Amino acid sequence: MNTGTAENPVKVVLDTNIFISALVYGGIPEKVLRMVLTKELQVVISPVLQAELTDIITKKFPLSLSDMYLLKEEMEKSFIIVNPHMDLYVVRDSDDNRVLEAAVEGDCDFIITGDQDLLELKEYRKIKIVTPVQFLEASNSRSHA
Fold this sequence. Notes:
Number of strands: 6
Number of helices: 7
CATH superfamily: 5'-nuclease
Structural class: alpha/beta
Largest sheet: 6 strands, mixed
CATH architecture: 3-Layer(aba) Sandwich
Strand order of the largest sheet: 3-2-1-4-6-5
Radius of gyration: 15 Å
Order of helices and strands: EHHEHHEHEHEEH
């Protein structure tokens, strides 16, 4: 698989913990999020994951109603929103299963997460499940290939 470009971005599900880590702590998760902003990555999200992200952001970062509206509008404009048509029961945490469902429905290349239960799978239906560090390492090795 090639490195994502604006013409051919890599499709990923970013677990909610990656969004929050990028916003709060920066570092490697922020580098991944910047790849989304430069359109090297195409984020796939489901309404369930979108609601979870919105809920956590509003709790951690109290936003005005207009800021909340802008956030939701930006997600709808920039992300591929999928409606999974199957229920998966692969891992014990139902929230993690929702991540897998979105990735499968969105035909993703990667799930980027810090969640140990998901990471233990390593791969699900040819979707690689990696940490932000592992993702950047894979991206760098693909761009130098």
